[in-house]
Amino acid sequence: MKIKIIVLGKIKEEYFKIAINEYSKRLSKFCNIEFIELQDEKVKEYSYENNIIKYKEFIKIEKVLNKNSFIISLDEKGKNLNSIEFSNLIKNTFFNYKEISFIIGSSVGLHENLIKISNFKLSLSKMTLTHQMVRLFLIEQIYRSFKIINNEPYHK
């Protein structure tokens, strides 16, 4: 089992890096986890160029994306799942796929072409979250899912 988390941009805050690394270490017991960080494009706040920026970022993502992977795009219009539903999605996906790829876009979101090729669209919250928090919340929920799948307690 392999999980890839493809992200645009880097994390600057050390405390986010520490937390994400901790969950990555914990997850290694259950699966292979890989982060792929891609350079995000320079954004002029809410400009007409956002679709061009999304397309450029789509091209970057497409180059590292395994087409045989189950692709889950994080999207504000995606489906909200509770932790049990999310763990079931992961468990059921690994019956048919060897790899799950999660894609976290930049501040302008993901290009429609990427949304179209995704197998599942996931929303972590109806609220707007920072890029760093999305990474942390996602990896924590993936870890929680594996604990649930393996009938291990996890409520910390």
Provide structural commentary.
The chain is α/β, with parallel strands linked by helices. The protein is built from 5 helices and 5 strands. It has one domain (2-149): Alpha/beta knot (3-Layer(aba) Sandwich). It has helices at residues 14-27, 50-64, 83-93, 112-117, 131-149, and strands at residues 2-8, 32-38, 70-80, 99-104, 120-123. It has a 5-stranded parallel sheet. α1 (14-27) runs parallel beside α5 (131-149). The longest helix has 19 residues, at 131-149.
Overall geometric form: globular
CATH superfamily: SPOUT methyltransferase, trefoil knot domain
Compute the number of structural domains.
1
The average pLDDT is 91
Beta-strand share of residues:
15-25%
What is the topology, as strand order, of the major beta sheet?
Answer: 2-1-4-3-5
Query: According to CATH, what is the class?
Result: Alpha Beta
- End-to-end gap: 25 Å
CATH fold topology: Alpha/beta knot
Radius of gyration computed on alpha carbons: 15 Å
Category from helices, strands and their pairing: alpha/beta
Number of helices: 5
Helix content: 40-55%
For the secondary structure, the number of strands is 5
**Poorly predicted parts:** none
Q: What is the annotated CATH architecture?
A: 3-Layer(aba) Sandwich
SSE string, helix = H, strand = E? EHEHEHEHEH
